[in-house]
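Private note to self, pasted from the team thread so I don't lose it. Backbone tokens:
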């Protein structure tokens, strides 16, 4: 496996409170990796540190052969490491088209038109609503828009932070079907999710965070075969 994202001994937190306690995590090229754990385990903090939104205390983040430890978030985006944030974070007063175009502001601007057609092919609903204000869309449509905006930057690796949060069961199925398609298209994905069952069905490997440390890493089948982990951390 060619390692694309290589996180080693990552430590950090807020003020004097340590949140991450020496986390190691790898994502290979074209691989789907699930990052699981209860609320407060450190998943969001890890995302922020990897994407340059929060400084780490120590450790390294290497991506696609480059050392991004301590890099500004713009440099992270330019490298092709793109995050679709929890809560969608679309611009409610801008149109669907304007939100999508902002996705290519830092990276892949010269191929904006081509990538826009690709996103519309994946999400026909966005094409139908290209002139609609994002704030008037349903939660599922806004999540499609957030992922589409991420794809506009031609990600080498896409971090999806709780993409099914707040969606109806039917839309959750639709969302995971889309994520599976992205993986089949060869895109590397780090999937941060509370929906354990669906995540493990499509992941190549999984990590379980507990109190800022990796409690488990390996194939989903091995995780599901461990009764203690299944009960204590996954609620299964």
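Design output:
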């Amino acid at each position: 496996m060619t390692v694309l994202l290589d996180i080693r001994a990552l430590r950090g937190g807020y003020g004097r409170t340590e949140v991450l306690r020496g986390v190691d995590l790898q994502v290979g090229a074209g691989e789907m990796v699930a990052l699981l754990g209860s609320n407060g385990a450190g998943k969001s903090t890890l995302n922020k540190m990897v994407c340059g939104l929060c400084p780490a205390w120590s450790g390294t983040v290497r991506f696609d052969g480059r050392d991004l430890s301590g890099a500004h978030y713009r440099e992270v985006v330019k490298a092709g490491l793109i995050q679709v944030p929890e809560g969608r974070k679309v611009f409610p007063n801008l149109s669907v088209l304007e939100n999508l175009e902002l996705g290519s502001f830092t990276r892949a601007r010269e191929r904006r038109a081509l990538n826009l057609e690709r996103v519309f092919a994946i999400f026909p609903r966005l094409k139908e609503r290209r002139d609609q204000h994002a704030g008037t869309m349903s939660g599922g449509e806004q999540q499609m828009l957030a992922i589409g905006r991420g794809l506009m930057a031609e990600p080498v690796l896409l971090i999806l932070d709780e993409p099914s949060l707040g969606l109806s069961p039917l839309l959750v199925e639709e969302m995971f079907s889309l994520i599976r398609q992205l993986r089949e298209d060869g895109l590397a994905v780090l999937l941060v999710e509370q929906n354990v069952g669906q995540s493990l069905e499509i992941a190549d490997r999984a990590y379980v965070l507990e109190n800022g440390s990796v409690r488990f890493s390996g194939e989903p089948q091995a995780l599901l075969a461990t009764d203690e982990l299944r009960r204590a951390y996954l609620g299964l």
